[in-house]
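Progress against Task 2.4 (sequence-to-structure conversion) is shown through the following example record, which the project officer requested during the mid-term review.
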Amino acid sequence: IVGWQAVIAGVIAVGAQLLGGLVACVSAALGGVVCVIPNVLFAIGLRMLERRKKQVGMGVFLVLEFVKIVLTMVFMIAAVWFYREVSWGYFLISLAIVLNSYIFLLYKNRS
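Structure tokens generated for the chain above:
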């Protein structure tokens, strides 16, 4: 699922490049990366815990989810701080689509 989120972020960035130029492309890419990196770290954390134990408890899952949310916010702030020319529209659209894409990806994997 995380791989597909990265692909979706890339497609959005290419579309933003075609529609709005380089600033739009970078902004959309940052919006996607802000979501993808914490999701990758979350998946790695779950995988590592699953290998050590047979079952991951709800408490551990919630802690990892909390860390993922905090990292997403930190990356959002860092992206805007280091790239001052961010185009908010492209950034937020990419962020929203990548954040919500897992719903459709889970449904696709289930069928």
